[in-house]
Amino acid sequence: MPTDHLFSHIVTTDELLAATGDSAWLAAMLDAEAALARAEAHAGVISAEVASAIAAGCKSEAFDVEEIGRQARDGGNPVIPLVSRLREVVGPGARDFVHWGATSQDILDTAAVLVARRSGRVIDAGLLRLADSCATLADSHRSTVMAGRTLLQPAVPITFGMKAAGWLGGVIDARQALAAALDGLAVQLGGAAGTLASLGSRGPEVVSAFAGELGLPEPVMPWHTARERTASLAAALGLVAGTSAKIAGDVALLMQHEVGEAFEPGGPGQGGSSTMPHKSNPVGAAAVGAATRRAHALVCLFFESLSGEHERHVTSWPVEWQSLGELLALTGGAVARTAETVGGLEVVAGAMAERVRALAGLLLAERVSLALAPRMGRSEAAAAVAEAGRRATDTSAGALVASLMSDPRAAEVIQAPELEDLMDPAGYLGSSEVWIDRVLARHAEMSR
Amino acid sequence: MPTDHLFSHIVTTDELLAATGDSAWLAAMLDAEAALARAEAHAGVISAEVASAIAAGCKSEAFDVEEIGRQARDGGNPVIPLVSRLREVVGPGARDFVHWGATSQDILDTAAVLVARRSGRVIDAGLLRLADSCATLADSHRSTVMAGRTLLQPAVPITFGMKAAGWLGGVIDARQALAAALDGLAVQLGGAAGTLASLGSRGPEVVSAFAGELGLPEPVMPWHTARERTASLAAALGLVAGTSAKIAGDVALLMQHEVGEAFEPGGPGQGGSSTMPHKSNPVGAAAVGAATRRAHALVCLFFESLSGEHERHVTSWPVEWQSLGELLALTGGAVARTAETVGGLEVVAGAMAERVRALAGLLLAERVSLALAPRMGRSEAAAAVAEAGRRATDTSAGALVASLMSDPRAAEVIQAPELEDLMDPAGYLGSSEVWIDRVLARHAEMSR
Amino acid sequence: MPTDHLFSHIVTTDELLAATGDSAWLAAMLDAEAALARAEAHAGVISAEVASAIAAGCKSEAFDVEEIGRQARDGGNPVIPLVSRLREVVGPGARDFVHWGATSQDILDTAAVLVARRSGRVIDAGLLRLADSCATLADSHRSTVMAGRTLLQPAVPITFGMKAAGWLGGVIDARQALAAALDGLAVQLGGAAGTLASLGSRGPEVVSAFAGELGLPEPVMPWHTARERTASLAAALGLVAGTSAKIAGDVALLMQHEVGEAFEPGGPGQGGSSTMPHKSNPVGAAAVGAATRRAHALVCLFFESLSGEHERHVTSWPVEWQSLGELLALTGGAVARTAETVGGLEVVAGAMAERVRALAGLLLAERVSLALAPRMGRSEAAAAVAEAGRRATDTSAGALVASLMSDPRAAEVIQAPELEDLMDPAGYLGSSEVWIDRVLARHAEMSR
Amino acid sequence: MPTDHLFSHIVTTDELLAATGDSAWLAAMLDAEAALARAEAHAGVISAEVASAIAAGCKSEAFDVEEIGRQARDGGNPVIPLVSRLREVVGPGARDFVHWGATSQDILDTAAVLVARRSGRVIDAGLLRLADSCATLADSHRSTVMAGRTLLQPAVPITFGMKAAGWLGGVIDARQALAAALDGLAVQLGGAAGTLASLGSRGPEVVSAFAGELGLPEPVMPWHTARERTASLAAALGLVAGTSAKIAGDVALLMQHEVGEAFEPGGPGQGGSSTMPHKSNPVGAAAVGAATRRAHALVCLFFESLSGEHERHVTSWPVEWQSLGELLALTGGAVARTAETVGGLEVVAGAMAERVRALAGLLLAERVSLALAPRMGRSEAAAAVAEAGRRATDTSAGALVASLMSDPRAAEVIQAPELEDLMDPAGYLGSSEVWIDRVLARHAEMSR
Does residue A273 have an active-site annotation? Predict the structure, then answer.
């Protein structure tokens, strides 16, 4: 909380700091109060003149967010001092109708929804940039063969385009989850304990108008103690952050000097070290990873907040406030930095190709083994290929072919030219292009 | 892990232990191998005879789960020894085509999906029982007035029916989330690194047939490293558990001796103490709460598992296995016990009524204050009511009326009979019946 | 992060916001740079004049924390721009020796240690106030009998003094854990990868002088990737926060209107509601609980940060920075608010006594049962008392006595006067005074 | 919980499964009941004969753990049915004095302490093996130069011995933390609500004798609701697991094919793949990482359990039971597997040397830059070296020297022979030997 200025720029953006900061919350609470007044005028609970006066008073400039924050301590939430101040601002005629029928939670929950939706649009724009960049890579590198790596060890060939398509698939799923969670965020209006008793029989009409004023959905009933909405939002943000961290983490591994197959975009000063002039550190991945871990720690709080006491939760509710702002800022920060990384990624296709060449004896071992299986039996084939690999002078295609041909069991059933054909990595890419096309089609569909 | 027998019955059920246990995973892995063989026969990759032989071998009886478990240590997953054993079982003709084109993760992920869907049906049945019980309470107690409590303090009147409707609203949301997450669980089939290279160009056809065999959706592309599906499932289970804990926790608070407004069903031995014969402990709530906290700790692991290395995650993947089984068992246990609590809930309507009577001077203070507001000004009215409350001899309606009438500012604008009318809690329930009807309608719709 | 002003005052204090904020970190980093220069002069690595010039430049006024924060993004940490700026400030003669031999992590880790120790003193002062207040209550209420409650149900009599002694015992343990963790926080100085190679053979001497300059312990070797120290600190803070939440939570339960045995101190506006004039909300407990949950979520991040890559962790290290500041601020906030609650606690001894009177038939049931056991057999006695309880007209002592005496099995072995003696709660307090004396003695010892 | 057999062998050992399993808990609960009886005889509360009879009945063979587990559901804990069964076993004379004065929590908490201490010994033995193996590597590889890597990029030279010393330093700290936490685990004995009222004034004497019987410390007062002890234990286990994961993770990174500097011990079948004969997967690291993440998720539950209600926690207490067993088993499993990895580590010193040779132009750039600084100015030197690095034909020492000598600014102040001397990595290891000696000395001290 107290280190906005020094550390926050590493993990989030100015746009998100603004969308989730003190002023954004203040504006959202005032939007809720103004919408409440207008909705009550619409339902005939208060007069149109009074509503106009209240709405006119709901301007951030008249409120000192720091002062309201200090006064929030005694009553335990900032709506109490906000309403006091709003009454002063509004003046005698309308003052008594400010916050009519509402409770602090109505305003704060509705404000949280507004903050989440507004920040959510920023996050989604980042996700779209990220998805587009992944799509571009998937398409343009559909034939860029590289080593597939499982448990950090070379496995079989893949293409870099397929790797990017896999990233894109995750981003698409995360975007959909976020959109669904944001769409589910409804207004909250229930009064002191959810009955809206002080509105008599006009409660439902006011709720409906309140939702209309704010452009938000109307809930089936007030959700002050049914926190599935906020927990679902937190979970969706956790998905989004995690999806970003997967991508950024893959890049950090590819950037290792010993691998050197892709690099974060490196303008001057990016990833440098003050003492080691050659360093090219994965600072983007470090930032995305740090933002994501912190985001995930916050997500867990929202599951815990599902349970709480009776008609208003003692602890579970106040836990949500700063946690939500931070979660939005960190998740959006992870997305934005990952989009920057993928958008400017330096793909070193030459290094990928050279590695595939050097490791072809390993990467194609499965293929050779399966080709020999019908001729020798599967386990015998596997054993022969494994032994040949151990005897080979290196991991190249040629060395494996030579080694295998020196094994009479293999030499009896296969000739060198056929083996050499089998060692072409581009011929062992299976369905990778199909996957790329399918994911790109889905992305295109979602972008329409 | 190692204390199934001693402690598990407190937090889950036999049905769920069976659905998530060793044998369930073994059967699911064998189902996946059998379906793979049949799918490959369908696509012409292997012959129908071979597929039949393999499928015939996929019977749990021929496998010693403990032995497979021991052998799993070296290779890091149980599919490797399972496949070895399956080859023995299947015999010479078909042996070489067992597990053709697949990798361990294909089988284990698909098995996890099967375990989750099968357990998910058990959990959903529990959720439906819970929803039905909440619905019954919501309807039958729509006129049972009780004290609404916010931050554990009496606020305004509500009905017990509305409280139950609020519970039901949460259950409905959680059910929908779970159903959506389960529906999204697709087969996984990608081979060594996702390309299905060993199936040549027949990969997509085999995946499609594999999905068809198992009655599962087909993914856009293999999801071995895009774990949004499992994380979404975990999040939905976290919602379900948390929703249960909210309900069970409310009951525990109502059961307090000093409150005494509702009780967990108490057959002989339920909630008893060995030394204090009178105890009626909220053992259901304790169990639901314990199961839920542990479930939530597990949920967090699935967010962490979204990120991992390249084409197979080193740590993030094995973290999922036991975590998923436990998460399903604990969540289902929380639901089942909550359903039992709500289904047999002893509602002490008399105690609710007596408390409302005794606290009417508090519970209706807001109403009186709002009624006086147009006549005295809002803050003056609030102050007068607050002072009257402090001067009143007790918290009853009569005491507040008497106290207020002794205040000349109030006595000038209102008479005792009007005040007494205002003190009728049944007249200050606002939209509670509307909310109940709406939630019941939504429940009815979902049950159709 | 971005909502310092609006929400932070609810969960922490101005003193802690200052001790953990941007300026505190800036000052600590500059203290580390100054101490490094002086230590290197001491070891003859740089001249005394140069060291003086550097130290003179390490004044916060010359640094714009916001500008440094913005520049931190590219290199991934704020030390890089801080050192650049320090070089400008220091001027030509000494500029080249700024940050000599150090790496960013040396400065940031040492600064974190300074921030933690300085904030730790504030937290400990709060813990001492809290401990003193608990001790006062334990001593003064050693004879205030109240209902002991297990699983939220009345069990046997205790005293409020013993309850406070139990709180105090926890606070003492937490204080010791925090002190030990803070004492273990050593300077970090290792250079680029821990060898201090650029200092030649003078590394150990410089580390020792560096520690001496800052009044901090010297580590056995650099701990840049062995994060047991920071994880232990986080764990100790988690203990401290949790201990506070236990106490604050007990008060919230005692404040329930239906219980009414103790209240948070309520000056004007404390715990009030804008619409319900009578409300006395446990806002202290809500704040302490919210701060604690968020603190605990942050603690978990430090366990995760124990593992990381090689000689500097990619993600695990940057996760620590803001997390540490928040964790200190939230934990200290929880302590301060709990100290305030306990220091000003309104203990309603009359309500405790009245409840004990009303529930004596329950609270002493165990005692009666044990007294009857040698005369009737233990299970027969338990059964007879349980039945008598069910038949009794209420839960008072008299009702239980009457009910029991109407049971011939009991009447045969005990007379009413003996039973009435057994029903004296003050006679069934066991070792409560011994526990109080022991805990007070331990507190006195620690305060010496 | 329900998948002991299939997955547990991957993440833990038979010894730990036994030490933390159903039978271990049953035995520990019976040990507690027997010790209680003996302690009460010692204090004259019950007769020596009765105590002998009870102690004689406390033999696991007479108890069906599965049956007790099933019966545990109703009362919410297994002590209630255990005591019933013990009464049957003990027979008429002593039956009534079984469990005298105790409550379920006394037995279960004391049993948890016994289980933790017994498992703790197993874990500590693993830690000692791990420490010894690290010490051996630190000593024998004190001159094995390798690339230090920060943020996954080559930095400056270190030795593999220093890396192992860093691992050892962490293990020593974790061992100390675990030992301290285990030592703090005291007996719990408080009766129904902590007063030990049913023991009259003999409570403290019985507690003392109870502790003596079990060889455990005596607490200042009962700690049924002050859970600092169990939370501290959990935190220490979290440290231990995290320390293991750091080591195992470093090995996984070194095992990457592109790095190839160290390998997990690979007997037949270790780390193999069913389809790719060449695979050498880091299955040890995967298992350690998975065990550690799950352990850390469980640790968090114990912080949450610090707070709870009054004299017995509703949810916070039952959360601890299975969580503790799992946490011990997983932590011990992580330690055992890491000890196995380090104990049999294949260190490929040749690959380390070859990489240092190939990267000397990078690894020594800092050294060259610092050597030029006094002659050219620090930033000019850094710039010249960085430029030379970019112009160099490769990353070798020779290439950097050639490139630098072609820069007139450098050539003016330094000659090739001096530069070539600077490029000797063995001359730029700073204090690495000092650190190794210090850590080894500390290890030797702790092992005495």
Answer: yes
Query: How would residue C209 be classed by pLDDT, with cut points 50, 70 and 90?
Result: very high
Does residue A270 carry a pLDDT above 70? no
| Partner-chain residue, chosen from D253, D282, D366, that has the shortest CB–CB distance to A276 | D366
- Give residue A93's pLDDT: 87
CA B330, CA B335: separation in Å to the nearest integer?
A: 9
Of C196, C223, C442, the CB nearest to D431: C196
Return the pLDDT at C3: 55
Alpha carbons A418 and B100: distance in angstroms, whole number: 22
Q: What is the CA radius of gyration of chain C?
A: 29
CA atoms within 13 A on the CB side of C431: 27
Q: How far is CA B26 from CA A43, B22, D2, D25, in A?
A: 61, 6, 13, 28
For chain D, 448 residues long, the average pLDDT of each consecutive 10-residue run is 81 96 97 98 97 98 96 95 97 93 97 98 98 98 98 97 98 98 98 96 98 98 97 98 98 97 81 65 97 98 98 97 97 98 97 97 94 92 92 94 95 96 97 98 91
Cβ of residue B152 closer than 8 Å to a chain C Cβ? yes
Residue A19 has phi, psi (to 5 degrees) of -75, -15
Q: Which site among B67, B322, B324, B338 would you substitute to test the D interface, given the most D Cβ atoms closer than 10 Å to its Cβ?
A: B322
Token representation of residue A249: 């983490």
Report chain A's C-alpha Rg in angstroms. Answer: 29
Per-residue pLDDT tens digits for C282-318: 999 999 999 999 999 999 999 999 999 999 999 999 9
Question: What was the pLDDT predicted at A421?
Answer: 96
Taking CB atoms and an 8 Å limit, are A286 and C22 in contact across chains? no
Please say if the pLDDT value at position C278 is more than 80.
no
Q: How many Cβ atoms are within 10 Å of B185's Cβ, its own excluded?
A: 23
Checking A85-92 for CB contacts under 8 A at 24+ apart, the result is A86/A30, A86/A33, A86/A54, A86/A57, A86/A58, A87/B379, A89/A57, A89/A62, A89/A63, A90/A53, A90/A54, A90/A56, A90/A57, A91/A53, A91/A57
Residues A147 and B193: their CA atoms lie apart, in Å, by 9
Residue C49, exposed/middle/buried by CB under 10 A (0-12, 13-18, 19+)? exposed
- Which residues 359-378 of C have a C-beta within 8 angstroms of D? 366-367, 370, 373-374, 377-378
Please, is B14 exposed, middle or buried when counting C-beta atoms within 10 Å of its C-beta (0-12, 13-18, 19+)?
exposed
**What whole-number distance in Å separates Cα of residue D85 and Cα of residue D425?**
71
Element (H, E) at B347: strand B346-347
| CA angle A212–A216–A222, rounded 5-degree value | 95
pTM over 0.90, yes/no: yes
The 3-state DSSP class for residue A64 equals coil
Nearest to D259 among A151, A258, A369 (CB): A258
Contact C26, C65 (CB under 8 A): yes
Provide the number of CB pairs (under 8 Å) joining chain A to chain D: 99
Q: What is the Cα–Cα distance from C316 to A245, expressed in whole angstroms?
A: 13
**pLDDT score at A189:** 98
Cβ–Cβ of B153/C359 closer than 8 Å?
A: no
Predicted pLDDT at B266: 82
Torsion sign over Cα C204, C208, C214, C219: positive
D283 touches chain C (CB under 8 A): no
Catalytic residue among B23, B140, B273, B307: B273
Confirm if A294 and C87 have CB atoms less than 8 A apart.
Answer: no
| Candidate list D273, D307, D431, D447, residue with the active-site label | D273
CA C16, C19, C22, C25 dihedral sign is negative
Instruction: Report the residue of A79, A145, A221 to disrupt the B interface, i.e. the one with the largest count of B CBs within 10 Å.
Output: A221
Average pLDDT, chain B: 95
| A116 burial via Cβ count (<10 Å: 0-12, 13-18, 19+) | buried
